[in-house]
């Protein structure tokens, strides 16, 4: 009979007593835990998250960065640009626009409108499109046909052209109205993504097992299908958020988006476009902030996609 002590030394295993409980197996990480593990080590995610955090702080607490009213103008500062820093939260080197208003103050306060519209539209389209795709993908049949045809009708309307038509019929274009118009036409992509993800997820073995054990329809949808089908929707929503901010600025530039007295990057870009040769600084700063904001969300979306896509692992 072989000596167990020599076998343990050779294999490096510890002795196991007869009747002793076996060690618990190591728990595998979920998709979300794996995604967060990868995101924390992705420089693209860290940089984009830092930029988005900075923009959110700008939007929520603009008084931390400037004490100047963005609507107050001084004719003496007409298109004036000063290469100096008069105060830590009032950099005059951003200059002034045609009405003598501080460009720095308008850039800071304009962040709120863009972030509000971007997050608001993304939340609305994710809820409406996600619910539509979930119902269509899970139940199928006539409900899927009806919801899919409605989605196709809205999908056939050009996004910006439809928003132009809708907003042109409204006289008071507040941020809430602009959010509603963009969400009214932008939910179709989320619905298609969610429907396709649900069709794949509901064929999984754990869904079949839950149905065999007598789980109800809504329990299966909310506890088993939705958590496992929502990852592609989150990726699309993160990338689309930057597109919605860009769409708001485009509509404001065309004169059918946000209106005064709302401070918006799109409004300032529209005002500055006529003086780009004489005062390029008036156009550069709001356009630069808009590009930085959209780029941050696009980078975040790419990082989230890489972390949640199993094919890229």
UniProtKB/TrEMBL annotation:
SUPFAM superfamilies: MetI-like. PROSITE patterns: ABC_TM1. It is a multi-pass membrane protein. It is found in: Cell membrane. Keywords: Cell membrane, Membrane, Transmembrane, Transmembrane helix, Transport. CDD domains: TM_PBP2 (cd06261). It comes from the Bacteria. The keyword Ion transport does not apply. The chain crosses the membrane at residues 44-65, 115-141, 153-170, 225-245, 283-304. One of its GO terms (cellular component) is plasma membrane. Residues 1-21 are annotated as: Disordered. InterPro entries: BP-dependent_transpt_permease, MetI-like, MetI-like_sf, OppC_N. One of its GO terms (biological process) is transmembrane transport. Residues 111-301 form the ABC transmembrane type-1 domain. This is Oligopeptide transport system permease protein.
